[in-house]
């Protein structure tokens, strides 16, 4: 106590500028205004308990980032500001706090994505987003307008619900590109995409002497993406000095994306606090105590920055009387190492958290998975097992919300102890091996063993009687009996007989999912899980409306290569040893009869390897290459040392584009999938291209042939 008292006296005597600041990861849900308010409120309480003077939250946290076309509805904005009003009404909650929340706001006929700065319960400033996210999964300009008037502010009349909460009793506040300045420090903000832009606002803020810059973000998870984000955050605070706070959504807010949290605080290019990237808890607050004099010292030692700061155009500021810094704690938070997950861990954690949010918010009572014993469905099963481990661990550690959700989903009484991960899997996860005469004893055994590893409720059934009934019906109508290729049938017959097995599995899966809870004396329904990977979607190696047509698919954005690595990792780290056996087996659909001289395999069926598919996918989507440019790139760069001739590479490229284009129509019915990979062919929004192609690509393929001929003659 005496040491703490001495620290306070020294701080006052030397007038040190020390402040505790907080950022957070919130599991917001689009249009869930009650839940969003409760989570924002809880984050403010936690920030204050940590001694924070300033708290920043995720992008559009009042209404949820994923409202999409609901932003066109006036109600969405109205309710978002009602959430802000409800926060401002709580005098004790807001006393002594600077709270930065995200909300939509309309002025002069334009709707903006905004940050709202609230000081001691009074709205001081509204800052609209200057650069909107419009690539990949994002369509912000469909709903919002970018603020293009740099260094300008105007008056904004507060919505009726908040009219009594303006600073100094006013009904209007400053709105635009500016900053908030206290007697001893300045606060500025940018939003999500702005961090990634070349002309990022944090540079102008730093050159104007603003010490603290925050970023309320709605950034989704993608495999191997966190490193790029953390580098940008370090650079934002290192290049020009300063304190940088990053808040993000975390969870599934109603769509294909999983927002991966990782709230963090950087000071002068070093990370001093970092939250979890993946978690099932609804609220996480990360705080750090920072010394703003260190920021000033860092900038002062950078003379070329000082020259630019002296000549930069001044930004408008909103003056707030009083100090931001306090002198109650001199223990500045030290720098720390950044924590990253391996890609295999990302697969185990991200889709698992996404599945939990989807399950608890959908009203379903569990998941149903057709488990074939192959790599894809095994990966999906392991992810559900990981989900069970995550939620039971969180509940056992004291997370009351997760515990309540477990009991509600599993239909347990409130006084029943939290089950183990295996016990929970038994209650909420059903796997079924839907075998036929074409299925092997090995895949049947692997499916049963993996279900046992996880704890799932497992059934093993033969569906030949249903398949035979459908084929017999066809024969009765047409007088023709189709045969498999190995029995002398044509390609059309062979495909039709494979497809009917796959489609019968889909029909039976939804039947079981709907009625199994009733059979077991429970209420509700099960959600059907799909398990087609991103490479199969790209190639179209799936039956339209087969058991890949499900309610949701946790691996639909993950490549086969990454899934195989995940299986090896999961065998050791998730405690499911059967995954190692699954990974070693050659991928096969098991839809054709097994003969002594013929066993169906995926890669032979496709006419290309999964590794090659990954290369094609990245070049097509990420590198934005058409057939001719892809051929040139493979011939001169990726496959230059592979020993393939120009003709061989040309045939591979043509084969890929033929099958990609003739199967593109299947993407229109693709099961909603967890987005994890930048070359996803999901045409819902990410990969927007036509689904009716000229599959012969006559002009493009002719150009490739011309290049090949020139190579032969050179």
The average pLDDT score comes to 93
- Number of distinct helices: 24
Helix content: 40-55%
Oligomer: single chain
Tell the overall outline. Answer: globular
Helix/sheet category = alpha/beta
Specify the biggest β-sheet.
16 strands, mixed
**CA-based gyration radius:** 29 Å
Please give the alpha-carbon distance between the first and last residues.
85 Å
Uncertain runs with pLDDT below 50, 5 residues or more?
Answer: none
**What percent of residues are in strands?**
15-25%
Q: How many strand elements?
A: 20
How would you describe what is shown here?
The chain has 714 residues and is α/β, with parallel strands linked by helices. The chain is built from 24 helices and 20 strands. The strands form 2 sheets. It has a 16-stranded mixed sheet that branches. A 4-stranded parallel sheet has the order 19-18-17-20, sandwiched between helices. The model has no long low-confidence stretch (mean pLDDT 93).
């Amino acid at each position: 106590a005496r040491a703490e008292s001495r620290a306070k006296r020294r701080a006052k005597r030397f007038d040190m500028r020390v402040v505790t600041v907080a950022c957070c990861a919130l599991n917001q849900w689009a249009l869930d205004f009650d839940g969003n308010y409760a989570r924002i409120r809880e984050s403010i309480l936690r920030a204050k308990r940590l001694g924070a003077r300033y708290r920043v939250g995720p992008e559009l946290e009042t209404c949820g980032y994923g409202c999409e076309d609901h932003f066109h509805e006036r109600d969405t904005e109205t309710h978002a500001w009602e959430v802000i009003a409800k926060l401002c009404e709580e005098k004790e909650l807001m006393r002594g706090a600077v709270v930065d929340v995200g909300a939509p706001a309309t002025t002069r006929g334009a709707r903006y994505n905004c940050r709202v700065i609230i000081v001691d319960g009074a709205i001081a400033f509204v800052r609209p987003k200057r650069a909107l996210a419009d690539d990949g999964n994002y369509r912000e300009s469909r709903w919002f307008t970018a603020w293009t008037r740099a260094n300008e502010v105007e008056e904004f009349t507060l919505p009726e619900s908040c009219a009594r909460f303006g600073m100094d009793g006013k009904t209007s506040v400053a709105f635009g590109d500016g900053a908030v300045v206290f007697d001893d420090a300045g606060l500025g903000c940018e939003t999500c995409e702005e961090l990634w832009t070349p002309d990022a606002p944090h540079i102008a803020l730093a050159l104007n002497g603003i010490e603290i810059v925050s970023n309320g973000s709605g950034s989704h998870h993608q495999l191997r993406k966190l490193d790029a984000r953390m580098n940008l955050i370090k650079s934002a605070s290192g290049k020009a000095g300063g304190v940088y706070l990053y808040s993000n959504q975390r969870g599934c807010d109603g769509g294909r994306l999983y927002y991966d949290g990782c709230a963090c605080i950087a000071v002068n290019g070093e990370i001093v606090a970092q939250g979890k990237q993946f978690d099932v808890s609804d609220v996480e607050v990360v705080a750090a105590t920072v010394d703003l004099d260190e920021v000033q010292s860092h900038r002062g030692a950078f003379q070329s920055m000082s020259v630019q700061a002296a000549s930069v155009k001044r930004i408008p500021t909103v003056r707030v009387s009083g100090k931001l810094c306090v002198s109650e704690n001199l223990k500045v938070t030290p720098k720390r190492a950044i924590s990253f997950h391996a890609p295999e861990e990302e697969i185990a954690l991200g889709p698992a958290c996404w599945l939990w949010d989807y399950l608890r918010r959908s009203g379903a009572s569990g998941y149903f998975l057709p488990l074939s014993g192959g790599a894809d469905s095994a990966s999906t099963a392991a992810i559900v097992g990981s989900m069970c481990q995550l939620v039971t661990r969180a509940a056992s550690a004291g997370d009351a919300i997760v515990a309540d959700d477990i009991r509600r989903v599993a239909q347990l009484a409130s006084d029943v102890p939290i089950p183990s991960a295996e016990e929970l899997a038994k209650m909420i996860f059903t796997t079924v091996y839907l075998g036929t005469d074409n299925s092997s004893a090995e895949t049947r055994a692997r499916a049963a063993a993996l279900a046992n590893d996880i704890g799932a409720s497992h059934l093993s059934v033969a569906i030949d009687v249903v398949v035979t009934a459908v084929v017999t019906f066809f024969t009765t109508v047409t007088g023709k009996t189709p045969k498999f290729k190995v029995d002398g049938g044509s390609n059309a017959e062979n495909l039709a007989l494979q497809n009917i097995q796959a489609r019968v599995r889909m029909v039976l899966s939804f039947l079981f999912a709907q009625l199994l809870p009733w059979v077991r004396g429970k209420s509700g329904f099960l959600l059907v899980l799909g398990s087609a990977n991103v490479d199969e979607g790209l190639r179209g190696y799936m039956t339209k409306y087969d058991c890949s047509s499900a309610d949701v698919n946790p691996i639909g954005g993950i490549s086969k290569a990454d899934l195989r690595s995940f299986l090896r990792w999961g065998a050791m780290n998730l405690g499911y040893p059967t995954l190692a056996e699954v990974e070693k087996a050659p991928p096969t659909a098991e839809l054709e009869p097994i003969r002594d001289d013929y066993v169906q395999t995926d890669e032979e069926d496709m006419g290309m390897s999964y590794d090659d598919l990954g290369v094609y996918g990245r070049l097509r989507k990420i590198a934005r290459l058409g057939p001719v440019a892809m051929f040139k790139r493979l011939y001169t760069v990726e496959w230059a040392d592979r020993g393939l001739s120009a003709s061989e590479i040309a045939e591979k490229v043509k084969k890929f584009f033929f099958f990609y284009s003739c199967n593109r129509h299947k993407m229109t019915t693709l099961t909603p999938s967890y987005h994890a990979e930048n070359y996803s062919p999901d045409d819902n929004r990410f990969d927007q291209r036509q689904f009716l192609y000229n599959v012969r690509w006559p002009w493009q393929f002719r150009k490739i042939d011309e290049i090949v001929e020139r190579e032969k003659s050179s």
